[in-house]
UniProtKB/TrEMBL annotation, chain A:
Signal peptide: none annotated. It comes from Jaculus jaculus. This is COMM domain-containing protein 6. Belongs to the COMM domain-containing protein 6 family. Residues 17-84 form the COMM domain. The gene is Commd6.
From TrEMBL, chain B:
Residues 100-174 form the COMM domain. InterPro entries: COMM, COMMD9, COMMD9_N. The lineage of its organism: Eukaryota, Metazoa, Chordata, Craniata, Vertebrata. Signal peptide: none annotated. It comes from Jaculus jaculus. This is COMM domain-containing protein. It holds the Pfam family COMMD9_HN.
Length: 84, 176
């Protein structure tokens, strides 16, 4: 994740509902370009239902620093939600 | 970090050809010293252990020299160190490109009333995630898609719970 900001005007045209959130913590051990890896990653799948009810799966893979940033963002949101 | 440019990260890609982490570690150690950049023997060793050209080896050693010195002498704070690791991870990941989260924007609103409830103070989060897919798989369609979701406090707490568990798992793996 390059940056996360509290935007004052996010695009709100199509709001979906988060139905499910699945995750996996994996370790890449080898690839075609790198024989010996010990590379942890976090894979997240978001099940989202749009306004018509159609369900879409959004799959994201993150490095550990990206995941930590992701987690930090959510903690920040929760803290704000707590105070209002 | 002006000392590390895009081409340095590109050069670091050659490290992917190493047969083991020990090779990488050794290269980092060897490339650190002042004499590393002029060393013919180090160049030869790099060429043969990574199966790269002389030019690629030279570029790699230059990049590694800068990187190892940067990390050591600038006494990078953990945030900067994470940035370096992140950039290196990006280099490692560039071969297989899976969907990545490129932006996360959010806003917390308070619902104060509705047609059925005249007074309330319900916080709700509007979250927009921008996801980048592999452009080569998208054809003409744009590779970045945006999804906006509304999250209640309950949903958010459930998510945090899950994310916390990932964090715990990571600590467990890291301590092994």
């Amino acid at each position: 994740m390059e940056r996360a900001s509290e935007s004052s005007e996010p695009v709100l045209d199509a709001k979906s509902q988060l139905i499910d959130f699945q995750w996996k913590l994996g370790m890449a051990v080898s690839s075609d370009s790198c024989r010996s890896l010990k590379y942890p990653y976090v894979a997240v799948m978001l099940k989202v239902a749009d306004q018509s009810g159609q369900i879409k799966n959004k799959f994201i893979e993150m490095t550990i620093p990206q995941f930590q940033n992701f987690y930090r963002q959510f903690k920040e949101i929760a803290a704000v939600m707590e105070t209002v | 970090m002006a000392a590390l440019a895009a081409e340095h990260f590109a050069a670091l890609q050659s490290l992917l050809k190493a047969s083991s982490k020990d090779v990488v570690r050794q290269l980092c150690q060897e490339s650190f010293s002042r004499s590393a950049l002029g060393s013919e023997s180090l160049l030869d060793i790099t060429c043969s252990s990574l199966s790269v050209t002389q030019e690629e080896a030279e570029q790699l050693l230059q990049a590694l020299h800068r990187l190892t010195r940067l990390v050591t002498f600038r006494d990078l704070s953990s945030a900067e160190a994470i940035l370096v690791v992140c950039a290196l991870s990006k280099t490692l990941l560039s071969t297989v490109s899976l969907p990545r989260l490129v932006d996360l924007d959010w806003r917390v609103d308070i619902k104060t009333s509705s047609d059925s409830i005249s007074r309330m103070a319900v916080p709700t989060c509007l979250l927009q995630m921008k996801i980048q897919e592999d452009p080569s798989l998208c054809g003409d369609k744009p590779s970045v898609s945006a999804v906006t979701v509304e999250l209640s406090k309950e949903t958010l707490d459930t998510m945090l719970d899950g994310l916390g568990r990932i964090r715990d798992q990571l600590s467990a793996v890291a301590s092994k």
